[in-house]
Specification:
Number of helices: 4
Oligomer: single chain
CATH topology: Pnp Oxidase, Chain A
Number of domains: 1
CATH architecture: Roll
Helix content: 10-25%
CATH superfamily: Electron Transport, Fmn-binding Protein, Chain A
Bound molecules: flavin mononucleotide
Strand content: 35-45%
Structural class: alpha+beta
Length: about 170
Amino acid sequence: MEQFRQILPEELGDNPFSLIGKDWLLLTAGAPEDHNTMTVSWAGMGVLWNKNVCTAYVRPQRHTFGFMEREEYFTLSAYPEEYREALRVCGTKSGREINKAAETGLTPFDAGGATAFEEARLVLLCRKLYAQDLRPECIVDPAVDTHYPQKDYHRMYIGEILRVLVK
Ligand SMILES: Cc1cc2nc3c(=O)[nH]c(=O)nc-3n(C[C@H](O)[C@H](O)[C@H](O)COP(=O)(O)O)c2cc1C
């Protein structure tokens, strides 16, 4: 935690499209001793209800889903390229089967109500404001439904950005 400094959301230098879609993020909820994390590459950053917010989308079968439901806070965190393999592990294995921190060597710390990892280059600490399931009857372009052959529609979580930590 000491290696991080807090900046304003407006000072963030990252391009959100490459940060989310190309670099990928870890979505993490729970305390360091009882957390789960998973890789996400579908997310959003913006402004809603006069607050700076992040939006994450979690399918119900993810182990992380239960943590997102239970917890008030979550983090989205970004990593240097050398951690790509760690993110691949967190995005293909479940916390039900492995201890992801032990498997990847990532070091959990409390970012202020939710876990992030010391190796991150950027941590966004968020407080849940709103959660809602994406619904098939709301899909406008039928192509969207091809992402849901198992009808496992994501739950959308909108969180207020409380802290932006960078190295
Ligand atoms: C690059 C990448 C991006 C992903 N993005 C998402 C996402 O946005 N939402 C989601 O529900 N799953 C996403 N996943 C899948 C989860 O990370 C994966 O199922 C993970 O193993 C879930 O772990 P858990 O069961 O411990 O929660 C992504 C996987 C990868 C590799």
